[in-house]
């Protein structure tokens, strides 16, 4: 968890309207990383390298050595190294996956952002496997890929060799049916989390609904990160910490 302050700082830059934070024993700015027009996603690999999506410029940046940006990939377009609104980011240390929303695909790069492959199913004849306008992408410890499908408002799970396994979040009861998904992450126990503006849904590894976090508490949520003893959700006005039981335990507001 040594890089946790860096993740919090980036989460703030992407999710909280005002960068100044009141002094707090839990959240203290460690450093400023990079310069972005609209940083929306961040991912950390096991080596401590940080990847950041700048959605405004359709770019993904890599930071491997201190605060200096390393390689980057992107720009607007539809080639293997350009994007049309990157909306998701995940890495296992060897690969970096980017959800390329407008191009209806998941792009795979190596750790230094060299292109490896492209994955798309919107035009496949196998309807169950289709996804379009991906809003996010997440990885399990076993290498399974979870795509947040903006076309059909669901999560589609693929194995490590991109074979369709199942989809969930679209046909279950009203508690677990996705309405306005924003982002997805896989937790330390391989549970799948999906953020919406007013709630955070938790599913098990097989897509079974477990619970809702932040119901009647969250509003205007923009991002979240998973920590060892809970989750931190950013909204347009604050950071909210929910403990492992899903209870709100702390709120940090921007300075006036």
Could you characterize the architecture of this molecule?
By secondary structure, the chain is mainly β. The protein is 5% helix and 40% strand. The protein has one helix and 20 strands. Strands 1-2-3-4 form a four-stranded antiparallel β-sheet, covered by helices on one side. Strands 5-6-7-8 form a four-stranded antiparallel β-sheet, with no helix packed on it. Strands 9-10-11-12 form a four-stranded antiparallel β-sheet, with no helix packed on it. A hairpin with a 2-residue loop joins strand 17 (221-227) and strand 18. The model is unreliable at 1-24 (pLDDT under 50).
Short description:
With 256 residues, the protein is mainly beta.
Helix/strand order, N-terminal first: HEEEEEEEEEEEEEEEEEEEE
Structural class: mainly beta
- What is the gyration radius calculated from CA atoms? 17 Å
> End-to-end span in angstroms?
30 Å
- Spans of 5+ residues with little confidence (pLDDT < 50)? 1-24
Q: What is the overall shape?
A: globular
The overall average pLDDT, rounded, is 88
Biggest β-sheet description:
4 strands, antiparallel
Question: What count of helical segments does DSSP give?
Answer: 1
Helix content: under 10%
Order of the strands making up the biggest sheet? 1-2-3-4
């Amino acid at each position: 968890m040594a890089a946790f302050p860096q993740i919090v700082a980036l989460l703030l830059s992407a999710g909280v309207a005002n960068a100044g934070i009141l002094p707090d024993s839990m959240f203290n700015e460690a450093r400023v990383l990079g310069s972005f027009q609209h940083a929306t996603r961040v991912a950390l690999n096991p080596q401590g390298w940080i990847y950041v999506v700048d959605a405004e410029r359709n770019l993904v940046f890599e930071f491997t050595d201190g605060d200096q940006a390393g390689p980057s990939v992107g720009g607007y377009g539809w080639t293997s190294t350009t994007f049309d609104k990157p909306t998701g980011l995940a890495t296992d240390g060897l690969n970096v996956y980017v959800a390329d929303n407008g191009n209806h695909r998941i792009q795979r790069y190596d750790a230094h952002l060299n292109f490896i492959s492209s994955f798309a199913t919107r035009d496949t004849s196998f309807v169950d496997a289709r996804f379009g306008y991906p809003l996010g992408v997440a990885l399990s410890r076993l290498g399974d890929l979870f795509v947040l499908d903006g076309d059909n408002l669901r999560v589609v799970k693929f194995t490590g060799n991109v074979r369709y396994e199942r989809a969930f979040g679209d046909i279950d009861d009203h508690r677990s049916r996705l309405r306005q998904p924003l982002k997805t992450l896989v937790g330390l126990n391989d549970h799948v989390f999906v953020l919406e503006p007013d709630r955070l849904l938790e599913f098990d590894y097989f897509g079974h609904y477990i619970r809702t976090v932040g119901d009647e508490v969250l509003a205007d949520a923009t991002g979240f990160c998973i920590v060892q003893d809970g989750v931190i959700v950013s909204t347009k006005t604050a950071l909210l910490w929910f403990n492992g039981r899903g209870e709100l335990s702390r709120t940090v507001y921007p300075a006036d």
